[in-house]
Write a structure and sequence with these properties.
With 153 residues, this protein is an all-alpha fold. The protein is 72% helix and 0% strand. The protein is elongated and about 50 Å long.
Length: 153
């Protein structure tokens, strides 16, 4: 758990540096306006993102409205990466289940499930399309869908 938290903190620093300080020339302004007014943007609307966005804009970090909305996309991308890490780690731990004697002696030794989890989450978070979507407010809608899809498993 501690290695995952440290990795997420490092990725959060990367996200804070990579997030756009203003609005992208896509539907980010409309998405933020819908979140601020608790309104529905153009179809399909994404009301869950509007509710999360309003909560984040009210109680989130300081900065301009656009910056805070873009940080929400970054935070959602890290939550999706953590869920992907846990899913991969659980799946790999069932594949590489050691005997009880080996399990006692491998507290911080080479653990395939940790490596698989970090590799899967790292590749997902650093993928160009995922980075681009996580840097703007409109991309947060898609990142939220990735997060909900990972949570469904």
């Amino acid at each position: 758990m501690i290695p995952a938290i440290l990795a997420l903190l490092g990725l959060w620093m990367f996200r804070v540096r990579a997030v756009c300080g203003g609005l992208y020339p896509d539907d980010s302004g409309e998405t933020l306006a819908a979140a601020w007014n608790l309104d529905i943007a153009h179809p399909p609307g994404d009301p869950l993102y509007a509710i999360l966005g309003r909560f984040w804009l009210d109680f989130g970090p300081a900065g301009s409205l656009a910056y805070r909305g873009n940080l929400l996309s970054g935070a959602l991308s890290l939550a999706a990466a953590y869920l992907l890490y846990r899913l991969t780690q659980v799946g790999a731990s069932h594949e590489y289940r050691p005997s009880s004697e080996k399990r006692k002696n491998r507290a911080w030794s080479w653990r395939p499930e940790l490596i698989c989890g970090f590799l899967a989450a790292g590749l997902a978070v650093l993928a160009p399309t995922f980075c681009l979507q996580a840097a703007g407010a409109k991309g947060g809608v898609y990142v939220l869908n990735v997060l909900l899809g990972a949570a469904a498993f």
